[in-house]
Structures are given as structure tokens and as C-alpha cells.
Amino acid sequence: MKRKFLIQPIMFILAIFMVVPLVFAGCGTTKDYIFSLKYVENFKIMQLADVQASSVEKCEEAFVDIKKMVEKEKPNLIVLSGDNIDVPENEDVFNCLVESMESLNTPWAPVFGNHDAEGVLTKEFMAERFKQAKNCYFASGEEGVDGVGNYVINIMDKKEVVCSVFLIDSNMYYDEEKTEYDSIHPNQIEWYEETVNFIKESNHNKTPKSLAFFHIPLHEYRDAKESFERGESEGRAEFNEGIYSGYENTGFFEKVKELQSTKAIFCGHDHANTCDINYQGVHLVYGLKSSRDSYYNESLLGTTIVTLSKTEIKIENKFFRDLD
Q1: Could you tell me the CATH number of the domain that includes residue 159?
Q2: DSSP 136-190
Q3: Could you tell me the pTM of the whole model?
Q4: Domain assignment of residue 58, given as a range
Q5: What is the pLDDT of residue 2?
């Protein structure tokens, strides 16, 4: 069952009973873009990057390996990190994607990439279909904030947030000619900050540990690559193409460092790259491409697995080539 994260009103209790003060803030308010999932030990998040299904046949083919990987890894949540479909001329491909995800019987959460809404389907249309799917966690986001699909899933142990998972729309193109990619917009960064603080106040005033998933890599991925190649940053990496960030660096990474909540950022977009580089205290991760649609590197097909404990975040690549 999908559950919204609710803040229960308590001020009248404090006034009447004068009990030990509780630190929940925003009493009497709810955020309809914040969901919750129950924490279990070694909670697994599986990232599927750039499934990019261009036909029903290609979609079905992709989910042969994806289903095997899900059966093997048994994730508690699956994140689709954008370019889930590739400019289909009708709804059949999108419906195949949704039905294939639903068949996995696992909670799943999508964000949009730059290709998803290039065809006849709008983000708004797809968003409504996501919301109707039984196992899908999706919210269009706060009114007045750019993008479609800025939302959060809190991994909860009783009333405590073990980890917040931020899902953010990194938008599509900077210009009408589609010569430059877009970025996370300033009002989305403001939303991110406000939401981190909202969850903190609702979490016994503890800053939540969090992850962020979106499609287009930040400019700092280039800096992290150079730092890694100089031996200044630890991690793993294989770069087989350029890093195609958005046209403008809007400052999301600086805000992440300032708030000290998000410990790892996950993107897709560049199909032949993979990395997990600890750059300035934040893991910058390229998820493995998860299908053979569009271009790909055969040795870098698979999924990226994040395993959460209450004290650690473990990030691993799981390759389709290793499936039985």
C-alpha cells in the first residue's frame, strides 16, 4: 500500500498536558509529494537507467533481463532514472513499460529523462498513468515548482526516517532547437532545501540521510572525473563517452554540500559511462544502462544496487552478463 508521510497535529496535546516537548514541526500539515516505505534491514534500491524502450518488442526484451535481476537481488524499491521510453508514436510502448514494472510486484518510482516526452505523450499524461499503477510511487510535485515528478520516498523505521529518497525531474532541453540539455531549475533547488528542512523538523530535528535520483548528470560529474583521474578522489569509474551535463550549472551540488543530507546522487543519460566517485563527500554515480535499446556498451549493461543499513550506504553494479 502506498502511504503518504503525514505530520499529525499535536499542539493541543502540548497545551493541555504540558508533556515532554515533541520536536515535530509543521503540525497539521501534510505534503502530498512525500511517501513512506517501511525500512527492513539491508534495504535494497535498484536503479534502472535508460531502459529507453522504442517498441513493445524492445520493451519486452529488456524486461527479460530486468526480471531475472529483480528475482536475484530482491530489491525493496526500484527507481527508473529517466529515458524510460524513447519517442513512441503511440501509447503501447508506455503501457508495456508500466505493465512490465507492475509485473515485478515491487514498489517502483520513476523520474523523467529528456526523451520520455519527445513523442506524442506528455509528462502530465504519463504522470497520471503512473499514479494509477498499484505499485508505483509517483507525485507530480509541488505546484509552482518546475518539472513534473519532484517527490520523496522516506524509508521509515517506526517514526524515524532512515533515509529519504529524492526523485527530481532534471527537465529536458535548454533551448527549442534541442542543442543543449536542461538542468535542475533554481526553484527546484529551493524546493529541495525546503523539503530537507521539513523532513528534518519532522524527524526529531535530525537531518535525514538522503539519496537523489535524476536523469541528466551535474557539471560536477566532470570535476569528479578529473579529480578521480588525478588520484584525488576515491571510487571506481569507466568513461567511454563524454559527460553531457545540462547547459547551466544551477548550483544543486553546492546546496547538497551545504545541507549535508544527500550522501549519493544517481543519474543515467550517458549510456556508456559508469562510476561511483566520492567527490567532496558526496558519491556521484552513473547507473548502468538497463537495456539494449538505443546505443550501449555490452559489458556495462545491468542495474545499480544501493543497500541501506542504518549506518551505511553500499553501492554496487550488478551486470546482466553475470545472470544465470
Answers
A1: 3.60.21.10
A2: B------TTSSSS--EEEEEEETTEEEEEEEE----SBSSTT--SB----HHHHH
A3: 0.91
A4: 31-322
A5: 53
